[in-house]
Design brief:
The protein has helices at about 20, 25-35, 40-45, 60-70, 75-85, 85-90, 105-115, 120-135, 175-185, 240-260, 275-285, 345-350, 355-360, 370-380, 385-395, 395-405, 415-440, and strands at about 140-150, 160, 195-200, 205-210, 215-225, 230-240, 265-270, 290, 310-315, 320, 325-335, 340, 365-370. The chain has 17 helices and 13 strands. Strands 1, 4, 5, 6, 7 and 8 form a six-stranded mixed sheet that branches. It has three domains: about 20-120, no CATH class; about 140-295 and about 380-440, Ribonuclease H-like superfamily/Ribonuclease H (Nucleotidyltransferase, domain 5), CATH 3.30.420.10; about 305-370, no CATH class. A hairpin with a 5-residue loop joins β5 (about 215-225) and β6. It is an alpha+beta fold and about 450 residues long. It is about 40% helix and about 15% strand. The structure holds iron/sulfur cluster (SF4). Iron/sulfur cluster binds next to α12 and α13.
């Protein structure tokens, strides 16, 4: 006999306990175990008035945001609806069955004002990171750095050529992203280069040509991760440009050292981080082994001798050429970064290799970057067991980016401006660390890169 549901939804009294309703293996239970927001109210105390109508509880907003970023709910309106209907979300947000979920417009106003001004999202990220450290998930021996491009919320057709002749609205009438951009421009150093094409809605985003597709406006999310369990130890938003990405790597390494006394022995990265100044900074200033391919354009393709064909004698500070002669430097630094080592015209005039070496000049010059010793060290590490391990482990950061876009659905930003991108990237990284802790603890120490979350 076909059964028929007999129920009375208008029943006045229920015996219902949310705590019992949420399955024991629900991801939010694991996350809840590791999320401690007991210091949040103290952190935000100075941002709230002592009088007036009570605001939405900031802990409720943070818990709702974590739900949104953990489960890829990108719209605030939808997030409010989901928390209203989903009992597990209600339980995680500490809402009872009959408690009101904030209206999405009130939610937005509260979120963007106080949270941004008080650095609340970084505070929450760091609280979660401290818990990761307490749980033994951060070894601190090896870090990896990488960046991933995320589309900005800016119409690619609403752009103008960059330059001084853009008529921006007066500050009171300008949007927040435009005000932020103009303020940053005022503080930029002289000689700062402006992008060739600027978005009028989100001018801090970078016009980016992606391989195989049309260009678009974008930001980069920069991750510094610990290689043990792939925990994100720092995150930074930048315009999607290599110069900003490399600068952010330095910012993050310094900040993690300052905030948590964490400095790795080795840093894994791709060629984007292999330019001489970055390698010099890592080796000479930070004493960190660069497990990074060297950015080197000195190899010649016309069959003549490249710099690699000359041997550097560190003791004597000279290069030895393939003809066995010495190239010396005056010690003068050109363009603030290069020493020139010159052969003697007398030697080159009579050399059998003249055609392959310096056919069009009287003698051979070999440039040497002031950070060449750091580049040499980076080259010497290639192929060692430690380097190969770093190269393998670096996949963890790439997998975090894949997870960010596929599972957390952060392939396009909803907030504009650099601070909007920073908010979104901080929340996403917090969600990824919480998911990682919830999933990994209890399964033993992680050591397989294939498990991204
Ligand atoms: S041409 Fe000059 S620098 Fe080149 S191999 Fe001969 S002596 Fe050395």
């Amino acid at each position: 006999m076909m059964g028929q549901l007999e129920t009375d939804q208008a029943k006045l009294f229920y015996e219902f306990d949310l705590e019992e309703f949420v399955p024991t293996d629900h991801l939010l239970r694991g996350i809840d175990r590791f999320l401690d927001l007991s210091n949040l109210r103290r952190h935000l105390a100075s941002s709230y008035s002592q009088i007036g109508r009570p605001s939405i509880d900031p802990e409720l907003m943070i818990r709702m945001l974590i739900v949104g970023y953990c489960f890829g709910i990108r719209s605030e309106r939808r997030l409010c609806e989901e928390v209203h209907f989903n009992l597990a979300y209600r339980w995680f947000c500490r809402l009872g069955l009959e408690d009101q979920v904030p209206d999405h417009s009130t939610f937005s106003v509260n979120r963007h004002g106080r949270f941004r001004e008080s650095g609340t999202l970084r505070f929450v990220f760091e609280q979660v990171l401290e818990r990761c450290m307490a749980e033994g998930l951060v070894g601190g021996e090896g870090f990896a750095v990488d960046a991933s491009i995320v589309k900005a919320d800016a119409n690619r057709r609403r752009g103008v050529p960059g330059g001084d002749d853009i008529h921006w609205p007066d500050p009171p009438r300008a949007s927040r992203p435009v005000r932020e951009y103009l303020a940053a421009l005022d503080e930029a150093p002289r000689g700062h280069t402006v992008s060739k094409k600027l978005s009028l809605t989100d001018p801090a985003s970078q016009w980016t040509a992606a391989p195989g597709g049309p260009a678009f406006y974008a930001y980069s999310t920069n991750y510094l991760i610990d290689l043990d369990a792939g925990i994100i130890v720092d995150v930074e938003a930048t315009p999607a440009h290599r110069t900003h990405e490399v600068a952010s790597a330095k910012t993050m390494i310094d900040r993690v050292e300052h905030r948590f006394d964490l400095k790795p022995d080795r840093l894994a990265g791709d060629t984007a981080y292999g330019a001489a100044p970055m390698l010099g900074w890592l080796v000479d200033d930070k004493k960190i082994e660069p497990h990074i391919p060297v950015w080197d354009k000195s190899k010649r393709k016309d069959g003549t001798f490249s710099r690699a064909d000359f041997t550097f004698d560190k003791e004597a500070d000279v290069y030895i050429c393939p003809g066995g002669k010495t190239l010396k430097t005056t010690g003068r630094v050109h363009d603030g970064k290069t020493l020139l080592y010159r052969a003697s015209k007398h030697d080159c005039d009579v050399c059998q290799f003249k055609i392959r070496c310096c056919a069009n000049t009287p003698s051979r010059k070999v440039p040497r970057d002031v950070n060449e010793a750091a580049r040499d060290l980076a080259r010497s590490l290639v192929g060692t067991a430690r380097y190969e391990k770093s190269r393998h482990d670096r996949k963890k950061v790439e997998m975090l980016f894949a997870h960010l876009k596929r599972v957390l659905k952060l392939d396009r930003l909803r907030l504009r401006g650099l601070s909007g991108a920073q908010d979104e990237f901080l929340l996403a990284a917090t969600a990824q660390n919480l998911r990682r802790m919830a999933k990994w603890i209890g399964r033993g120490p992680p050591n397989v890169a294939a498990h991204a979350t």
